[in-house]
Amino acid sequence: MGGAYVLANALHEAVDSQDAFHRYERFVRPHVEERQKNARDFAKTFVPESRLGLTVQQVLMKLLLRDAFIGLLRRQFGAESLLQTRELRQAAQR
Q1: Which long-range contacts (C-beta less than 8 Å, at least 24 apart) are formed by 17-20?
Q2: Which is deepest, 25, 77, 84, 85, by most CB within 10 Å?
């Protein structure tokens, strides 16, 4: 939904659609690349390379899935909205 809002805003402010798409891509690309990098890094943790790695993974999963760590997991792996940026909050208030 955030991406749709960003695109709509770019289409509204741009002179033509090509300019709007360039604005949209310049804004969205860093967010997408960061999320893709995080996903690749996270995926590596699913396949430990040794028995020790597997044991560590099992212990950490038991520890992290406790209630005390749920907030940490949400902050680490929950995707932030594209609308969190200051300029978009200001644009939404207009």
Answers
A1: none
A2: 85
